[in-house]
Write a structure and sequence with these properties.
411 residues, alpha+beta, Cytochrome p450, 5-stranded mixed β-sheet, 3-stranded antiparallel β-sheet, globular, binds protoporphyrin IX containing FE
Length: 411
């Protein structure tokens, strides 16, 4: 490897999900792409990192080599999460069942409800001078919508937020995440147990008393002529909570942090709201809220002269791939009209995001309404933003806001 000593970094325990990397990912990922496209730890760790667009996309499209089985991500679940931790061909059976729930047509009825909810949430803080965008907007919008979709009571929201943080951020607050690995694993296990118990009761209630919500659909769903078992419904629900609550919050955080620091981009959206669709795609690319996803090799695989042994854990760095100039000309520039924009912020291959249409709808409506109501905003002066590693939330995200009507046309 040339000047960039990826091996030395690996020995020192290079971790793409390190908080230091999270604060300044673009520069770091460029070095990886250019100088160590397959960077790895030597045995016995067997961890590798792919960072170029072509390599990441290729790995995700070859699940027979790069499995997403539960060995890749143990997060407190008893059984594989459905459909994320099921490999093809079995995976397709579950996607056929679940895809219709999240199709653009099925979701189109949600748009008015989403717009109304976004406005109700803005009403709560629009008259204040400052707001913590993360707590006041980015958390409640997707979480409230998601509970409505699932048919779960809104007053369980706090419980769900605690659970998903305990699973996804079990290391937070522990002084040394490596030393405290056992402690975080125990937190995940206990939380997993609580989630299973909650859904076991909810599933039993739907079997007895069906409604028209998503949980009832799952309880009655058939696969190859038989109903889903209670365990299968549980394994879908467990994943939905993790995948549906945190990611949209993180995307909203990343997008608003960027726009608040780049007034010309914010003004472009205020002046021409039709740019919002392109802005969602471009900001998903540039900010990539899910930094990377994990796979485990099913056999030895060689790429760029590096051998990844069987059972190696491979991090596919979506964020690094989305900033690769080999695919995206001038990748640092944010261009709401970028065309083509084949970003992989929502994954690629068979496991590409099931909730992508829902995510896009929520993000578009949230940005449209926020800019209509609050055309002028900026970061509170002197604040340094902190991005979490892995799924990139920004908490707190303090903004100075000036609502429409108090400024001349939102500039
Ligand atoms: C902007 C927000 C979102 C982002 C950035 C995002 C990102 C992703 C990514 C990168 C994957 C691929 C994971 C892998 O291959 O290992 C994925 C899969 C998935 N996402 Fe999302 N997601 C978002 C929103 C949602 C929402 C709202 C839901 C709603 C339930 C959802 C449900 C899922 C599910 C179930 C999978 C697994 C699909 C499969 O294995 O076939 N996601 N998502």
């Amino acid at each position: 490897m040339s000047q960039y000593d990826a091996k030395a970094e690996s020995k020192a325990g290079f971790n793409p999900f390190d908080t230091a990397v999270a604060q300044n990912p673009h520069a770091h990922f460029k070095r990886l792409r250019d100088e160590a496209p397959v960077s790895g730890s030597p045995p016995p760790f067997q961890n590798f990192v792919l960072s170029r667009y072509e390599d990441v996309r290729w790995a995700l499209k070859h699940p027979e080599l790069f499995s997403s089985s539960a060995d890749a991500v143990p997060i407190g679940q008893d059984r594989p999460l459905i459909p994320l931790q099921i490999d093809p061909p079995e995976h397709a059976k579950y996607r056929r069942l679940l895809d219709p729930l999240f199709s653009p047509k099925a979701l189109s009825v949600m748009e008015d409800d989403a717009r109304k909810l976004v406005n109700e949430i803005i009403d709560r803080f629009v008259d204040d001078e400052t707001v913590d965008f993360h707590a006041a907007f980015a958390v409640p919008v997707p979480c409230t919508l998601f509970l409505r979709l699932m048919g779960l009571p809104q007053d369980h929201l706090e419980q769900f937020l605690t659970w998903k943080d305990q699973i996804l951020r079990a290391d937070a607050g522990l002084d040394d995440p490596i030393e405290n690995h056992k402690a975080s694993a125990a937190i995940r296990r206990d939380t997993g147990k609580a989630i299973y118990e909650y859904f076991a009761a909810a599933i039993a209630a739907r079997r007895q008393d069906p409604t028209d919500d998503m949980l009832t659909y799952l309880v009655n769903a058939e696969i190859e002529g038989r109903r889903l078992t209670d365990e299968e419904v549980l394994d879908v629900c467990f994943l939905f909570i993790l995948a549906g609550l945190d990611t949209v919050t993180a995307s909203l955080d990343c997008m608003m942090a960027r726009l608040a620091g780049h007034a010309e981009e914010r003004r472009a959206l205020v002046e021409d709201p039709s740019l919002t669709v392109g802005a969602v795609e471009e900001l998903l690319r540039h900010e990539t809220p899910v930094t990377g996803i994990l796979r485990v090799t099913t056999e030895p695989v060689v790429r760029h002269d590096v051998e990844m042994k069987e059972h190696a854990i491979v991090t596919c760095l979506l964020h690094a791939a989305n900033m690769d100039e080999r695919e995206f000309p001038d990748p640092e520039t944010v261009d709401f009209r970028r065309e083509p924009n084949r970003h992989i912020a929502l994954g690629a291959g068979p496991h590409r995001c099931l909730g992508s249409h829902l995510a896009r709808l929520e993000l578009r409506v949230a940005l449209e309404e926020f800019h209509r109501r609050i055309p002028d905003y900026a970061l509170v002066p002197g604040v340094t933003l902190e991005y979490t590693a892995g799924i990139r939330q920004v908490s707190p995200l303090p903004l100075v806001i000036r609502p429409a009507g108090t400024v001349g046309g939102g500039n």
